[in-house]
Amino acid sequence: MISDNLLSSSISPQTGSRQAGDSPADQIFIVLPNLNSETLLANASQDLASVQALAGHLAFDVDGPQRDVVLGIHRMVEGIQLMVDRVLDLVEVSEQK
Predict the structure, then answer these.
(1) 3-state helix/strand/coil string of 48-76
(2) Where are the domains of the chain?
(3) Which of 59, 75, 84, 91 is paired with 51 by a 20 to 30 Å CA distance?
(4) pTM, entire model
């Protein structure tokens, strides 16, 4: 399971040092190391907005307990979206000073 892999790698990091461009054999996606915080946050915000829209649309396609789950996910993502957007606002304010 992906979360198990992430947890095990964070608990017991690899002993060898990594060179730039090195990645585990099972890693499909990477985040470029030279991206700044604002770029990363802006992309995270856009991705969250997409997930929020997907969950909002899905909520109208399901009924009962499944709908409750989807709406719960939608609300959680909305809260995360608000936090990421707030950090983006703080980054913009600090850059303007």
Answers:
(1) HHHHHHHHHHHHCCCCHHHHHHHHHHHHH
(2) 2-96
(3) 91
(4) 0.64
